[in-house]
């Protein structure tokens, strides 16, 4: 015993002597990058190496490209780090985390005006992508049931989307063998879906329509009510029951607070399911999302698996199994901490900043905004038609990056790829002061190009889906 204690003391003394200064062996030698190192190294050295490599990443707080939360308050961070070790799938072992998940589902279900009678139906996910998969799978299963009941073939399902949908919808269609029927984006329709175009594409094989509340490309809301009303007529005429799934990845945490009278949720008859990202305007660090169904009738029972090997009889409907419980904890913390008024105040502050920034940008340079942050606090702008500039939005994006700002530039989807945009996502953590600093930098960039009349503007390098 004495001997062991002596060894331990020696080890500690040694460790103190070998503090991981940058002169220590581990920090002077090359680090094995693609092979497992043979031996251990001290935790402090490993920490220092990994920490330092990550300094080369962009600064998350200056990341105006992402929709995902980059700032949470210290109490939320504390709670999250206290609960890193909880696996949310172990519902029998962590019944209180499971209870918090159900509280969140109920809160969202109420916020989205699900019918008051009946139990709230929904679950947490890793984000909107998984939530979209689950919502759209339920649409496909329900459609198959309807076709089977009519004695018809269920071989050729299709789904109606705008070409501006986020890539998760393309994935759903390919992975689950559903034909995507796209409404093209055109300038005359303000680059949005509309009811008339949707109805033109509908038929008996349509499993649903998926309008977006706050598109990834411009942040604009698509007209869910108009589509609902047109579908109501169409379904009556044809005897079909084509439903709507609203992709409210961002808007699901904005519209209930800032546009309360906008009908886009379960107030509309044909809206059967909604996805929302808790890690976007739900104000939680990545990755948590939610899918909420209008009621239990919309979630076919045979999509739910029951497992008993964690103890108890646990229903699961998810693409993943194990994942962190701490994001669910943080979502509930936000609900409790902020309440309706707190969320409203934060979203309004973001929106005010987005509107301010979009207006100022138009004043200081040859920019024209397609959106101004009046739907979700996101706006997209292009260079004015006919503007005689020696730079493109790609140049502006690159120059901003030199200062640390991450502002993406990209082309619109097929049909309007000649339009290139800069997009700014204003989130909690981006103050008016930072907006002014960004404007100053844009001003400096404009002067820089003015001083270089011979410079030739960069063109779009890639054509693909816009990332978030
Ligand atoms: C409209 C829309 N739907 C779905 C997604 C995918 O969301 P997530 O990153 O939460 O999986 C995004 C991401 O930005 C989005 O903007």
Question: Any overview of this molecule?
Answer:
With 468 residues, this protein is an alpha/beta fold. The protein is built from 13 helices and 13 strands. It has a domain at 78-334: 3-Layer(aba) Sandwich (Aspartate Aminotransferase, domain 2). 39% of the residues lie in helices and 13% in strands. Strands 1-7-6-5 form a four-stranded mixed β-sheet, sandwiched between helices. Strands 10-11-13-12 form a four-stranded antiparallel β-sheet. α5 (95-111) crosses α11, α8 (195-201) runs parallel beside α9 and α11 (326-364) packs across α13 (432-450). The mean pLDDT is 92.
Entry keywords:
globular, alpha/beta, four-stranded mixed sheet, 39% helix, four-stranded antiparallel sheet, 13 helices, Aspartate Aminotransferase, domain 2, binds pyridoxal-5'-phosphate, 468 residues
Q: How many β-strand runs?
A: 13
Biggest β-sheet description: 4 strands, mixed
**Count of separate DSSP helical elements:** 13
One letter per element, helices H and strands E, the order comes to: HHHHHEHEHEHEHEHEEEEHEEHEEH
CATH topology of the domain at 78-334: Aspartate Aminotransferase, domain 2
CATH superfamily of the domain at 78-334: Type I PLP-dependent aspartate aminotransferase-like (Major domain)
Strand content: 5-15%
Q: What compounds sit in this structure?
A: pyridoxal-5'-phosphate
What is the oligomer described by this structure?
Answer: single chain
Largest sheet strand order = 1-7-6-5
Helix content: 25-40%
Q: Would you summarize the structure shown here?
A:
This protein is an alpha/beta fold. The model has no long low-confidence stretch (mean pLDDT 92).
């Amino acid at each position: 015993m004495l001997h062991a204690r002596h060894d331990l003391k020696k080890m500690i003394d040694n460790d103190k002597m070998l503090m991981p200064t940058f002169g220590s062996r581990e920090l002077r030698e090359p680090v094995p990058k693609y092979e497992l190192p043979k031996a251990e190294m001290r935790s402090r050295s490993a920490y220092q190496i990994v920490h330092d490599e990550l300094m080369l990443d962009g600064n998350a707080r200056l990341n105006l490209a992402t929709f995902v939360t980059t700032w949470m308050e210290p109490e939320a961070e504390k709670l999250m780090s206290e609960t890193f070790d909880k696996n949310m799938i172990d519902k029998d072992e962590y019944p209180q985390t499971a209870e918090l998940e159900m509280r969140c589902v109920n809160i969202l279900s109420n916020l989205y005006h699900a019918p008051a009678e009946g139990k709230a139906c929904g679950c947490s996910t890793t984000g909107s992508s998984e939530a979209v998969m689950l919502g759209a799978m339920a649409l496909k299963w329900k459609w198959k049931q309807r076709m089977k009941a009519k004695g018809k073939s269920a071989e050729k399902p299709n789904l109606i989307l705008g070409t501006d949908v986020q890539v998760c919808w393309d994935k759903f269609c390919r992975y689950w063998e559903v034909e995507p029927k796209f409404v093209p984006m055109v300038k005359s329709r303000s680059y949005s879906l509309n009811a008339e175009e949707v109805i033109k594409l509908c038929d008996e094989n349509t499993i649903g329509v998926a309008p977006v509340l706050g598109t990834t490309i411009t942040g604009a809301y698509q007209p869910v009510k108009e589509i609902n009303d047109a579908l109501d007529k169409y379904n009556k005429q044809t005897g079909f029951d084509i439903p709507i799934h609203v992709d409210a990845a961002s808007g699901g945490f904005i519209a209930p607070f800032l546009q309360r009278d906008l009908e886009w949720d379960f107030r509309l008859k044909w809206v059967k399911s909604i996805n929302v990202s808790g890690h976007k305007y739900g104000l939680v660090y990545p990755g948590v999302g939610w899918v909420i169904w209008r009621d239990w009738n919309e979630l076919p029972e045979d999509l739910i698996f029951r497992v008993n090997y964690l103890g108890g009889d646990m229903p699961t409907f998810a693409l993943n199994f194990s994942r962190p419980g701490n994001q669910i904890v943080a979502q509930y913390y936000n609900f409790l901490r902020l309440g309706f008024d707190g969320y409203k105040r934060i979203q309004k502050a973001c929106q005010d900043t987005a509107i301010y920034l979009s207006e100022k940008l138009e004043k200081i340079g040859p920019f024209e905004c397609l959106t101004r942050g009046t739907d979700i606090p996101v706006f997209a702008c292009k260079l004015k038609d006919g503007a005689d500039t020696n730079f493109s939005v790609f140049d502006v994006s690159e120059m901003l990056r030199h200062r640390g700002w991450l502002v993406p530039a990209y082309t619109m989807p097929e049909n309007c790829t000649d339009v290139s945009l800069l997009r700014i996502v204003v989130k909690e953590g981006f103050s008016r002061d930072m907006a002014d600093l960004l404007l100053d930098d844009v001003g400096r960039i404009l002067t820089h190009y003015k001083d270089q009349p011979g410079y030739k503007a960069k063109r779009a390098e890639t054509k693909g889906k816009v990332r978030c």
